[in-house]
């Protein structure tokens, strides 16, 4: 049996942990002539296509249309640096709406079913822990900070809303548009539905094998 060594950085991100789990499962099905070592958090592994665990397990569901008088729920993956921005944004939302709750998820796996909109309000250009890909695969409209990874995930805004990092005003406007302007959000959801295959683990496996066989 060929030995596979996977090296995670100190204090690994949830993104690196996810990639390690996916790669482990993928590589168990492959044959190699020599041992394999993968170092996470650094190129070339960090540049591989992003994949979603259990792709297809949660069916792509249409956006929830709440009846009048019902509350709306938006969600994010909890990270300490984003809390002040969430508080600032909620203060602005509550100037005009009192029917929106923002829930924070502490650990994966995430059940996206309760959420009307998924938010990644990261302030860090290197933060990949927003679970944007998973939300898209689950059929949720996404609002995310305009970071390099989110620009790629949301295809420059075609499949979701991109906002400047650390801007509570723009974040507020995008959240309200995602919730209450279906003429804007529905085309993005439909575009995401047509492109989520990019997150299938087989796409990552192809790129991974190119590295390992080079």
Explain this structure.
- This protein is α/β, with parallel strands linked by helices and 214 residues long.
- The chain folds into two domains: 4-51 and 200-212, no CATH class; 72-196, Glycogen Phosphorylase B (Rossmann fold, 3-Layer(aba) Sandwich).
- It is 36% helix and 15% strand.
- It contains seven helices and seven strands.
- Helix 1 packs across helix 7 and helix 2 (83-93) packs across helix 5 (168-180).
- The protein starts with a strand and ends with a helix.
- Identify the CATH class of the largest domain: Alpha Beta
Tell me the span between the first and last alpha carbons: 21 Å
Rounded Rg: 18 Å
Shape: elongated
Number of helices: 7
CATH superfamily of the largest domain: Glycogen Phosphorylase B
Strand content: 5-15%
**How many strands in all?**
7
Average pLDDT number: 91
| CATH structural architecture of the largest domain | 3-Layer(aba) Sandwich
H/E series: EHEEHEEHEHEHHH
Q: Helix amount, in percent?
A: 25-40%
Structural domains: how many: 2
Helix-and-strand structural type = alpha/beta
Per CATH, what is the topology of the largest domain? Rossmann fold
